[in-house]
Amino acid sequence: MNDNQIAIRNLLGLAMKAGKLVLGTGPTLDAIRQEKVQVVFFPSDGGKSQAKKFQDKTQFYHVQLVQDFDRDTLSQAIGANRSVFGVSDQGFSKKIKQLLIEKERN
């Protein structure tokens, strides 16, 4: 795991403590439709039909979808047994997007 991935995991933990995550499949899909989240995390080892549903929704609503982490990593990052969630805070979302861009460059 590189430095950017570690930083993203740390940010997710902080966002969870701050109450800035929308947890679970249904609530996250609702938040995407209501444009309340800017970044959505879906596990790389998640189901194909669910993955397609999230890819379609996030693309339609111009929300960034992150599938770089597996279920266990996402659950550990937020300290809860959830692997699908959205970030509802603009500050956290902006920083996570910056880290994702930097990761792509490296």
Mind explaining what this structure looks like?
This protein is α+β, with helices and mostly antiparallel strands and 106 residues long. It has a single domain, classed as 60s Ribosomal Protein L30, Chain: A (2-Layer Sandwich), CATH 3.30.1330. It is 58% helix and 11% strand. The chain has helices spanning 3-17, 25-33, 48-60, 71-78, 90-105; strands at 21-23, 39-41, 64-66, 85-87. Strand 2 (39-41), helix 3 and strand 3 form a beta-alpha-beta unit. Helix 1 (3-17) crosses helix 4 and helix 1 (3-17) packs antiparallel against helix 5. The radius of gyration is 12 Å and the shape is globular. The model has no long low-confidence stretch (mean pLDDT 95). Residues 7-95 form the Ribosomal protein eL8/eL30/eS12/Gadd45 domain.
What secondary-structure arrangement, pairings included, does this model have?
Elements: H1 3-17, E1 21-23, H2 25-33, E2 39-41, H3 48-60, E3 64-66, H4 71-78, E4 85-87, H5 90-105
Parallel strand pairs: 2-3
Antiparallel strand pairs: 1-4, 2-4
Helix pairs in contact: 1-4, 1-5
Number of strands: 4
Q: What ranges have pLDDT less than 50 throughout 5 or more consecutive residues?
A: none
Q: Radius of gyration over alpha carbons?
A: 12 Å
CATH class: Alpha Beta
Portion of residues in beta strands equals: 5-15%
- Which oligomeric state applies? single chain
Measure the end-to-end span.
13 Å
SSE run: HEHEHEHEH
Tally of DSSP helical segments: 5
Largest sheet: 4 strands, mixed
Give the overall form.
globular
Give the CATH topology: 60s Ribosomal Protein L30, Chain: A
Binned, the helix content reads 55-70%
- Helix/strand/pairing class, anyone? alpha+beta
CATH homology-level superfamily: Ribosomal protein L30/S12
Task: Quote the average pLDDT.
Answer: 95
Second-tier CATH architecture: 2-Layer Sandwich
Number of domains: 1
Strand order of the largest sheet: 1-4-2-3
